C-alpha cells in the first residue's frame, strides 16, 4: 500500500492521485491530471496513462524501462496555467529518475485540453539530461539523506 502520494503533493495517495487512477474521480485541472499521470508512471499503470492521453496523439504502446532499473523519485511542478474559456491548460514540470547511480532529469512543457468534461494530455516539449550521482550528495528524491543511505 502506498502512503505518501508519489506526485509530491505531500498528501496521502488515497486522498490525492489514487481516486483518479482507480477511475473513481476525474482530474479537475491539468496540473492534477499531470500529477496523477506521473504517479501512474511510478506505478507502471499503462492503462491509466493511455486513458488520459488524447486519442489523436496517444501512442499504441508506452515504452517502459527494465523493472527496478529506473525509478522515478521526484516531481516538481514549476508552472501551471489553465484557460477554461479555451478549454486548455499547460503544465511545466521537472521529473527525476535514478538508474544505476545515474540521475535522469526530464523537464516538460505539457499541453492539455478539456474534452467532454475531462482533461486529456495532448503533447509536450521535453528536454532531458543525465548526470552521475556521488554517494555523498544529497539524495535527489528530496529525503534530506545522503544518496548512499537512501536511493542507492
Structure, described:
By secondary structure, this protein is α+β, with helices and mostly antiparallel strands. The protein has helices at 18-21, 30-43, 46-51; strands at residues 70-83, 88-99, 102-115, 118-132.
Structural class by helix and strand composition? alpha+beta
Oligomer: single chain
Specify the biggest β-sheet.
4 strands, antiparallel
**Percentage of residues assigned to helices:** 10-25%
Q: State the total count of DSSP E strands.
A: 4
Beta-strand content bin? 35-45%
Rg on CA atoms, Å? 16 Å
Low-confidence stretches: 65-69
Shape: globular
In DSSP terms, counting alpha (H) and pi (I) runs of 4 or more, how many helices?
3
Question: Spatial order of the strands in the main sheet?
Answer: 1-2-3-4
Report the CATH architecture.
Roll
Number of discrete domains:
1
Topology:
Layout: H1 18-21, H2 30-43, H3 46-51, E1 70-83, E2 88-99, E3 102-115, E4 118-132
Antiparallel strand pairs: 1-2, 2-3, 3-4
Q: Which features characterize this protein?
A:
152 residues, alpha+beta, Nuclear Transport Factor 2, Chain: A, four-stranded antiparallel β-sheet, 3 helices, 4 strands
